[in-house]
């Protein structure tokens, strides 16, 4: 089964012309007669010299694309409407018609795109890949040619070599599945392909879009494979959070790559430089299973807390006030009928007064270097001031402390020995 004499497929899809052609087949624009809408029809072309085994593998690949895309319902993924089997066993896929061009075609015209535009494309691709991963689908061939642009809409297409959870593999020994320049190291080495592999390819695609060149290149597929497995890409010149995304995803070990959440935060930071999540995601480590991701901002900036910002000045001001209060105690006259100053007494009394003063000044000097412990400082300051202002009542002793008045305000007599 194919296009009949009137250019109709399966009695329903009328051929309106070819949209594109590649090594594996062609994509046609067609009109769905039953539903009166335009669709895209993907035709698989197998080389005539292909063996029966190779034909079966290619047919299985086309079937897999239909099943993989049929699982997914997302605005960033091209929708599959139908699948038609030809008489020769070839599958034809009927899918959503995207009126736009691929990212590869756009880069061929402009070579490199602004970082903000690349970040917006990256966010849309990340959302589409996340939706696929939730459904157990790993794309395995993320590249600019498989990213379609329709106005502000970004779509991911071609799930022909996707790995489906719970499905059997169709890979033959020696077959390379994927586009070499955008393949992850684990794909190159023939290891298990995971969701982290798609994130590597996402980063390679964004690298090509913003830097104007592929992260890994060479004169042959073998040279590209060696570069991917053993070398580091040239440092991206875009800088900022976008460069952190590229560096964080183009890591050889899949376990060391950034998580989708970290990538999303960084790409959002490119679109909104004031986003508070940028710094946290930028410095957060890879999501190792045995430990939680690190957070860069462990404490809020002190500039956001006025009391903490002026804490040192406030504490030292309190200490100065305490010192001045002690000096005032030593030099100021007592309020009362006595004309004596605090130190105008016997030498024994002066020693008793100076001892706590010396201790108080030593404490003040020590506390001067502890402004980060305001509670301790203020407690000791209160104790010092309390010690110098406390006076026992006359009922508790036979005499008053130095300079204090007796309990009888009319009497000027002093206790013996004073």
Describe, in plain words, how this protein is organized in 3D.
The protein is α+β, with helices and mostly antiparallel strands. It has three domains: 89 residues, Phosphorylase Kinase, domain 1, CATH 3.30.200; 186 residues, Transferase(Phosphotransferase) domain 1 (Transferase(Phosphotransferase), domain 1); 88 residues, no CATH class. The protein has 13 helices and eleven strands. Strands 1-2-3-4-6-5 form a six-stranded antiparallel beta sheet, covered by helices on one side. A hairpin with a 4-residue loop joins β3 and β4. The longest helix is centred in the C-terminal third of the chain and has 21 residues. The C terminus is likely disordered. Its EC number is 2.7.11.1. It holds the Pfam family Pkinase. This is non-specific serine/threonine protein kinase.
Q: What's the quick description here?
A:
The chain has helices at 52-71, 103-110, 115-134, 185-188, 195-211, 221-230, 240-249, 260-271, 277-283, 306-309, 311-331, 347-367, 374-389; strands at residues 8-9, 13-22, 25-32, 37-44, 80-85, 91-96, 101-102, 137-138, 147-150, 153-156, 163-164. The protein is of the alpha+beta class. Helix 11 runs antiparallel to helix 12 (347-367) and helix 12 packs antiparallel against helix 13 (374-389).
Features:
418 residues; alpha+beta; Phosphorylase Kinase, domain 1; Transferase(Phosphotransferase), domain 1; 3 domains; 13 helices; elongated
CATH architecture of the largest domain: Orthogonal Bundle
Task: Give the tally of structural domains.
Answer: 3
- Order of neighbouring strands in the sheet with most strands: 1-2-3-4-6-5
Instruction: Give the uncertain stretches in residue-range form.
Output: 164-177, 287-309, 334-341, 393-418
String of helices and strands: EEEEHEEEHHEEEEHHHHHHHHHH
The tally of helices reads 13
How far is the first residue's CA from the last residue's CA? 126 Å
Query: Quick one: how many beta strands?
Result: 11
Structural class category: alpha+beta
Looking at this structure, what is the CATH superfamily of the largest domain?
Transferase(Phosphotransferase) domain 1
Pfam families: Pkinase
Protein name: non-specific serine/threonine protein kinase
Biased composition (Low complexity): 395-404
Region (Disordered): 279-301, 395-418
